Amino acid sequence: MAGSFAELAGRFGFRTDQGRIDAKTWREGTIFLGVPLAVLTLIWFFLAPFAQHDLAKTPFLAWGTVATFVYLLFYAFAILLIAICHYNLSAKRWRDRGWPFPGALAGLLPLTALVSGAAHWLQPREAEIISYWYVAGIDAALVAIIAWNVVEVGCFGARKP
User: What's the pLDDT tens digit per position in 87-103?
Assistant: First the structure.
């Protein structure tokens, strides 16, 4: 187990799911991953209107639209990298908690978050097919999983083997 979060982050401790960490290290690592995610998402909220491109009104190569999609490419890569790092961080913590199948439990939060993001993206484009209630249901599941993770791996200590 890493002695502190600084040691874990200093040797890039999110690169593998092997090992164990304590609740404090998990909380610090989650905040460490959550802050850039929040900043990148906030930037995307400001840039998202530029992704709407109507060729009847704007030229084919509108530089604002090109820059928006370049950022979207970077943002998508960052989202996937943060999800993988959080999976590795959580797998260590679930293993320390003594739950069976720590990899499956660690993957539940990133998977649900990615599905929620996809549903929020797809629903306005396919509103006739996908009701908003599906999106709300996925969001409710995401909130429940976040709450369960915060309580289970963020607050409780290690279980005795």
Answer: 998 998 888 888 888 88
Q: Which of 5, 27, 66 is CA-nearest to residue 152?
A: 27
CA angle 74, 78, 84 (to 5 degrees): 150
Token pair recorded at residue 76: 């998508």
Is residue 9 a contact partner of residue 29, using CB atoms and an 8 Å limit?
yes
Other C-beta atoms closer than 10 Å to the C-beta of 85 total 19
Sign of torsion, CA 39 45 49 53?
positive
Per-residue burial over 42-78, b = 16 or more CB atoms within 10 Å of its CB, e = otherwise:
eebeebeebeeeeeeeeeeeeeebeebeebeeebeee
Q: Are 86 and 37 in contact (CB under 8 A)?
A: no
Cα 59 from Cα 155, distance rounded (Å): 54
pLDDT tops 80 at residue 27? yes
Does the pTM surpass 0.90? The reply is no
- pLDDT grade for 118, boundaries at 50, 70 and 90: very high
Say which amino acid occupies 55: L
